[in-house]
Fold each of these.
Amino acid sequence: MDAIRVTVWRGNTVEATHLVHVASTGGDQRGDPGLVCHFRSSMKPLQAVPLVESYNDLTDDEIAIACASHEAETAQIEAVRVLLARAEATEDDLELGLQPGRPHGKLGHNCSGKHAGMLAACHANGWPTHPYRDPAHPLQRRILELMGPGDVAADGCGVPTVAMPIERMAQVFTMIPPRIVEAMLARSDLVGGSRADDTDLVLALPGWIAKRGAEGLLCALSPDGVGWAFKVADGSARALRPAIGQLLGIDAFRRVPVHNSIGETVGSIE
């Protein structure tokens, strides 16, 4: 079937269109399921596997924040601090930069939970703490082993990411260990945050987990074990909600209002 077409309206005029490709392990496809892109932050639940393999006393908060692209909300920052304490590490040990306009320094980076989890995994296994983001580091080798073959490049926060067809992303998402699924369900608010697409999807569809990534990517797992991958061809994340709403039956996602700078509704994305 054709890709899902998402239209951006301002008044009665179409200002833009986006094509969304979809793959699922249940056979529901739209557009090109062989479309290749990088897994980006949708890969975080798999990047948390070495952490979960290393401890048997992790809380839901610790696991969820390791899977997160967070909004630097108070509970999220506190969860990052807990993971850093487990790693016997500090903010200075996080191998990432600063994100302009976000509070709390490196802790406020939306990937700080993932990095704190990586430091904790290194601490538990006696692996060198630095440079933990090197593809040759034992931590990253374990993650890349889980992901399988694909072009390896540096993600926005500096750690390796892997490119693959979205149909394989959907399959990989079914490999998330039950303990990680459990934590993402329990603390979906930590995984994304207020108004985040992945958190809102989980709130709309109880029993699902979801993780958004850069360049218009979102992957999800249904309660019956079906993996999904949604990818906006031009990388615009604003097209995700209407496409997800259409395919997964989330009415609140089907139409996203467009506002001007004084809060008036001037159009829609649908």
Note: The chain has eleven helices and ten strands.
Amino acid sequence: MRLIERSSLEEIGDLPTERIARELPQLIGDVLRAVANDKFDPGELGPEQYERAAALAELHAGSERSAADLARDITALQSVIMRALRQELDAIDPEVFADTVERLAEVTGTIQAAAAEELVVARSRELETLANTDPLTGLNNLRFLQQQIRQLLGVYKRYETPFAVLLLDIDGLKRVNDSHGHQAGDRILMQVAMSMRRSIRNVDTAARLGGDEFCVLAPNQQAAAAQVLAERLAAAVEQEVTTPDGPAVGISIGVVACPEHGEEPEQLMEVADRAMYKAKAGGESVSVGAPDEPEVAEATKRS
């Protein structure tokens, strides 16, 4: 079929399928070769064909377009190919033409299904990301942190791999909000988040818990090593984040580790919270948890 040998279909440029023709020209060849091949099963796609079909969904990624828009694009593409086929097959028996059109419908239906499936998966990933992300800072949120700490606990209980928890609180954010408004406070929160990203390892998880509290999960770290990470993080925030008045912003960090300070999420977060308030009360940036002194830490927190 001479149509298969063409590098493009001119009519496509005037339809919503223009991006398909421009960015996925091989997909058009897939359709035509499948229609021309009597041995091709229209209900199945090879790995490369499926990959190109799934790539149709990427043309819609990040837009407000729906699966219905995707279906309309593929239907328009099918109409263009059908008109071109009709011109090519004018001299062929009508029954052969009908069979060819039927195969075209089956092939494009299979491609549409593959593209729609990928679009649904992509949108699900987007929703999952939104559900796990703090909208202001772009860090992970409390929901995601809780999932990760449960996962790290599972790894510890199976392989005895330790991990550390760093609980952070920004010093003086309320003063900034009261003096300069919440927009100024939000800028500080975003700057702190940027400092956290630059200071932690790729394997670490940074999250904003809400308000002025943040947290870092550090896999395969004991408290001593995590303290070094916390000190580096505190120094980065002090150097990089400033208030509208000019002075640097500080943070107070409580450091704990599993199993040194507990083997349950609530216990670890409670000890880290006490350590954080101990650092704040003592004018220090970092304090390692002391689970054997709860009454002292609680008194410090209340003061």
Note: Residues 2-131 form one domain.
Amino acid sequence: MLQSLLSITQVRYSAGKAAQQDIFKAQLQVSLIDTKLLQLDRERHLREAEINSLLNLPSNTPLPKPGEPHVGPLPETLADLQAIARERSPMRLRDQKMTERAQTALNLARKDYYPDYAVSGGYYNMGGLPPFYSFRADIKIPLYFRTKQRAEVTEQSIAVSQARHTYEATGLALDLRIADDYGQADTAYQLVEAYRATILPQARLTVESSLTSYQTGAVDFLSVLNNQTAALDFEMEFHEQMLNYHLAIVRLEEASGMDLLEGGH
């Protein structure tokens, strides 16, 4: 559209119907877009090098062109996603294992209160002497259970309490994090749909209409340029919301341990 505006402005200037500054303004906008495209291209190469590094590939390995980003309503409700995360979240599972480990240590410490015993026996044949059986019982009594054993049980009880507190705190923090990311993803999805269905088509129609009117002299150059700039801003905001949606989805997948974009568990 900017190239079309520049061409039309040059024609109108040749016919004495447009100011030379309008051509300069149009050329400036085209140059700014070209500069932005160069910056985005450089950013793309940097991101490709990072991806190759993660894949243990040479930095200049060509990557296939990604498909059109998928944007859709979240396949799970917030409550369902939080419930799934409580069962499958790596952080939650880690804290659960730590709690189980502390409980096992406490159970072992409590066993030290009880005596250890061992029973053995055998049959003996002494040649010319009559054979006989022998039995033996050994009992180890913990004499210092009121000091050593009790202190250990107290220590392990505190460890269990701390582990359970951490487990519950992680669950609450996880619920809050999921609620925040869920809200961001849902808001971004609605904005993407609004841009796609209404705002962008209307902005493009406005630019086309003003460009046609500019050819006939019905509107001035600045109005067309403002409409074109607004349309480009809307395009950038559309892609920004697309990015916000996918970043929120990635965080939700990390927290819940499920594939949300494919709707799979």
Note: The chain has two domains: 1-67, 74-113+143-265.
Amino acid sequence: MTDGPAAGSTLAVRARNLTRTFASGVGVHDVDLDVKAGTIFGFIGPSGSGKTTTVRLLTGVLAPDEGELTVLGSRPVDFDRAERTQLGYLPQASVLYPDLSLWENLGFCASLFGMPWRGRRRRMEEVIDLVELTDARSRLMRHASTGMQRRLSLAATLIHDPDFLLLDEPTAGIDPVLRRKFWDHFANLRDQGRTFFITTQYVGEAAFCDLVGVLAHGRLLTVDTPEGLRRQAFGGDVVDVSLASPISAVDLEEMVQTAAAARSQRIGPATIRLTVENAGDVAPVVSSWALDKGIDIEAVDQFLPPFDDVFVELVSRLAPSYGNLQ
């Protein structure tokens, strides 16, 4: 599914024919994947498609039935203590202690990673501020909302400043403003050389990733940049041509041929959506054609389909038997 890393790059994850199947038949099958160090890799797929299973394989919690897998150069099931401290793992379910306060839970996690007393408190204050829980630090975990528990779990994952972060739906239950703050922080850590492997239920968050893998039926359908996924889903760039008034079917056919569009769709009385090879080449060509025809064009704008639509198109095209995508 991948073209391989660029020359001289370092791989954080290398998987070949990675397979783990459960008694029910679900799992992941024949996954080939390269994730370069210093990138944000997003993993999207329908519920039950195998995202969490893949994350557990990457942490060494599960062992593969078949295939090869290395993370940071080692097999996850063979990680020693030092190698595990390079990882930050955020599971979907909270594993923190309900009868400790948020601050005490964070301090306990810091101690698990052997963080020295000198500097520990400062680091704890940094991460609890990041997740906006400073004012609630004394609250018992069992009295915290689900969203607050999720935010503290993320802080606990970041506390020891790991090199490789495996985050299983890190922004589930988080409000949109705070979700964007988290993604900005992830990008900042990525720029410092950290690597992220992130599953998400918010398909639109794929836009924040460097590369995105699409999973369905436990199989990796494709890996590409966010823009590359859009082009795969819709067969090219998408452009909206806004006209001053509706045009005839004959003129529409001429416009499609002039723009060399693969597809066309009327999305309003006087707006035509075209799928073309390169959006940047369309405006001058269509504008010149319209001028010759005496047709008034108000605007030619590239349309960026939302990633929810991209995801549905990709899964429908690459895994047509999937059926219900909810």
Note: The radius of gyration is 24 Å.
